[in-house]
Amino acid sequence: MSKERFVQLAKQIEQQLKDLNSAREELNTIMTNLGLNFYVQDPETLVVYKIIKPLGTFTYYRDIDYKRTALEGEKGGTVLAKKEAEEAGFRLK
Hints:
Blueprint: H1 3-34, E1 39-41, E2 48-50, H2 82-87
Antiparallel strand pairs: 1-2
């Protein structure tokens, strides 16, 4: 088990989530502009997409996850409080 590998993977996941959220925002804008029941086909794979109003969203919960302290300029929220990290013995400055 490697602390360095944990940090590496955590950073990788965080970047992928940022990229995914950015792509989701752009996709939502485009779908809104195209409208419900609009179809489009991928010319390479021939897959057809239809813009729909979903009946619901599947939710799942992880058995284990992590929180982290905020980076400079990030807002708090679901991150690990700096005070808690300091109380655990970590120096943040």
